């Protein structure tokens, strides 16, 4: 009996370790790009965010990423950043990051945030400058700057070098999923589906 319990505990603890882990561990200090055998401090430096210094407020919601694609030294390090810039009354539509949880730090303005868990429960908050909010890995979430006069600026850290982004509107309505399938799925008609698709494709 005790042995069984021990084995069950062992399996459970290895499962919970598995689900807590970020990217797989690497077997070297860092991963060099194949074409670069010797690097210096520049390899570990990312300057792509300098464009934000003294930059004007963007016209629409803007995200600047520093993930593995933009910053190759992050490969194997299980971390990345994005800077989120919200002009007044702008939204970052519902989306998920399949490979990483997100820790958002609001640097300026106010921001309405929310996520939906796997039991369809919605969690929301109105953040003030200086607040942080965590979006659990893989769950659908959004951010909205409801202030019609002021910008909101946030930095998000991710527990993956390549968290990935799946946009709900785009993946459902801005690909070639059959209109009939979507009409049935959303319990509406093909006309309504085409209208939504046209909006996302910029055809209205
Ligand atoms: C190789 O590394 C150097 C310095 O770290 C960097 O300036 C250069 O762009 C890298 N080259 C490639 C092909 O990644
Ligand atoms: C819809 O997809 C097109 C083509 O990939 C893209 O140019 C456009 O930005 C997408 N629309 C939105 C709202 O992201």
From TrEMBL:
Belongs to the germin family. It is found in: Secreted, Extracellular space, Apoplast. This is Germin-like protein. CDD domains: cupin_OxOx. InterPro entries: Cupin_1, Germin, RmlC-like_jellyroll, RmlC_Cupin_sf. Residues 61-194 form the Cupin type-1 domain. Oxalate binds at residues 92, 97, 102.
């Amino acid at each position: 009996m005790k042995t069984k319990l021990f084995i069950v505990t062992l399996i459970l603890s290895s499962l919970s370790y598995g689900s807590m882990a970020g990217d797989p561990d690497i077997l070297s200090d860092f991963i060099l790009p194949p074409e670069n055998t010797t690097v210096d401090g520049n390899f570990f430096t990312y300057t792509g965010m300098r464009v934000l210094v003294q930059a004007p407020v963007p016209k629409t919601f803007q995200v600047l990423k520093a993930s593995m694609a933009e910053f190759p030294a992050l490969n194997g390090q299980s971390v990345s950043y994005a800077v989120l810039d919200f002009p007044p009354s702008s939204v970052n539509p519902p989306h998920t990051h399949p490979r990483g949880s997100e820790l958002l730090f609001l640097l300026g303005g106010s921001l309405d945030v929310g996520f939906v868990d796997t039991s369809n429960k919605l969690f929301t908050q109105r953040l003030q400058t200086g607040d942080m909010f965590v979006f659990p890995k893989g769950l659908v979430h959004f951010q909205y700057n409801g202030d019609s006069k002021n910008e909101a600026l946030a930095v998000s850290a991710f527990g993956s070098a390549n968290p990935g982004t799946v946009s709900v509107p785009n993946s459902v309505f801005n690909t070639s999923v059959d209109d009939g399938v979507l009409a049935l799925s959303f319990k509406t008609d093909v006309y309504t589906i085409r209208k939504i698709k046209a909006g996302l494709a910029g055809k209205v």
